Amino acid sequence: MAVESKHAETIALHAGWRADETTGAVAVPIFQTTSYQFRDTEHAANLFALKELGHIYTRIGNPTTAVLEARLAALEGGVAALALASGQAASAFALQNIARVGDNVVSSTDLYGGTWNLFANTLRDQGVEVRFVDPADPENFRRATDDRTRAYYAETLPNPKLTVFPIAEVAAIGRDYGVPLIVDNTAAPIIARPLDHGAAIVVYSTTKYLGGHGTSIGGAIIDGGNFDWEKFPARQPALNTPDPSYHGAVWVEAVKPLGPVAYVLKARATLLRDLGSAPSPFNAFLTLQGIETVTLRMERHVQNAQKVVDFLSKRSEVTKVIHPSQQRGEARRRADAYLKGGYGALIGFELKGGLEAGRRFIDALEMFYHVANIGDARSLAIHPATTTHSQLAEEGQLASGVTPGYVRLSIGLEHIDDILADLEKGLTAAGA
Ligand code: PLP
After folding, report:
1. Which residues of 327-366 are buried (b: 16+ CB within 10 A; e: fewer)?
2. Helix (H) or strand (E) holding 425
3. Mutate to test the pocket of ligand 1, among 115, 161, 165, 380 (most ligand atoms within 8 A of CB)
4. DSSP assignment letter at 311
5. How far is 13 from 60, CA to CA, in rounded Å?
6. What is the fold, at CATH topology level, of the domain defined by 8-289?
7. Is the CB of 166 under 6 A from ligand 1?
8. 157, 344 contact by CB (below 8 A)
9. In this structure, are residues 206 and 81 in contact, taking their beta carbons and an 8 Å threshold?
10. Where do the DSSP E strands lie in 48-205?
11. Which helix (H) or strand (E) holds 131?
12. Taking the domain 295-430, which CATH number applies?
């Protein structure tokens, strides 16, 4: 059965696995093993030489994790995926795979704080410069590009601004230069498919909606197989010149019999081998369990969120509701172009009473969890000015879209009446 061509609901249940060949088990087994017996010396040699694909050691690959990878690649419309221990590992690997000392990457300013720190500090200390540009004008990416630019990076639906990134526009600029667009789609799985709009690589924190139940940290890189690395040898030396860390393999050549998977195979064969951010088979299993219902869950997340937006928009305690459904002009055009399955389940809103009202709101909630997370089955709330963004001066908070009275909600799957009742408690405490 060619599952890849079926609908997302079907792919989420069937891609990458049918049944265990020995036992007939239908659920994906947890292969809790570190290593794999080789059939003979020739088999072992072929695996190491990448002449044959198979498992060697769970740091580099595992059968449970492989099902997760196949399912993610199929859901996203890509050719192959690499599952990692966290979303942070995925964004780091995505750039480290092609950017080396002296190279640069152009990134949207609108990023998750952890990604920002990774880019602005850790990668800089490792010799890779990340140039941050305002995505409101896609041409900013072109302006920041030079001969050493190896990738563009952005999030589909970044919070707190919740302004959708111009995926096709920036991907097209990159394709002129041989620069791939890497998109973090963590906040919009199923509802957005960046590869369909020209992105080359998708990264995820599977910790959020894909896993969906708040049990397992995880990440993934999905290779679209749609980027012509070979056409730009000077621009993409990491994939086009002999790699001394893999007996001189030229990745675009070495993988030819396996398909257009040079990027993702290099990440596994070198970065995962050397840096070791492998997911545990148990976490891969839990993430797979989550993915089986992600299409249903996203539908309900989006429906509930839209009802919360309507509710908040009518409240006197609230001065502004931030959600793609509320945007107009170019921001709304982008939301409509890229969010095909609804406007997402993250909502920001500003309380008239500012910082103190924000505190009172959060403290009065009984059902919402007060956590620094998004994308759980449960509803979550946070007041960024006193938590995630408290290290920034007010000016920096404002630049990132956080006003003193800003509250972020991640709307879960509870009954909408119970969600609204809890918000009512918070708004009453916040005061008009
Ligand atoms: N990308 C986005 C958009 C996120 O929200 C997060 C975490 O909050 C990450 C990446 C990092 O993922 P993880 O926490 O799984 O390392």
Report:
1. beeebbebbeebbebbbbbbbbbbbebbbebbbbbbebbe
2. helix 416-430
3. 115
4. H
5. 25
6. Aspartate Aminotransferase; domain 2 (3.40.640)
7. no
8. yes
9. no
10. 80-84, 104-108, 129-133, 149-155, 181-184, 201-205
11. strand 129-133
12. 3.90.1150.10
Give the residues across from 80 on adjacent strands: 223
Q: State which amino acid sits at residue 215.
A: T
Is 0.85 topped by the overall pTM?
yes
User: What is the residue extent of each domain of the chain?
Assistant: 8-289, 295-430
Pair of tokens at residue 238:
């990491």
Tokens of 163: 């302004």
pLDDT in tens, 253-294: 999 989 999 999 999 999 999 999 999 999 999 999 999 999
Backbone torsions φ then ψ of 140, nearest 5 degrees: -60, -30
Cα 208 to ligand 1 centroid, rounded to whole Å: 8
Q: Measured on CA atoms in the order 106, 112, 113, 118, is the torsion positive or negative?
A: negative
Ligand 1 centroid to residue 105 C-alpha, Å = 19
In tens, the pLDDT along 34-55 reads 999 999 999 999 998 888 889 9
- Residue pair 235/229 in contact (Cβ under 8 Å)? The answer is no
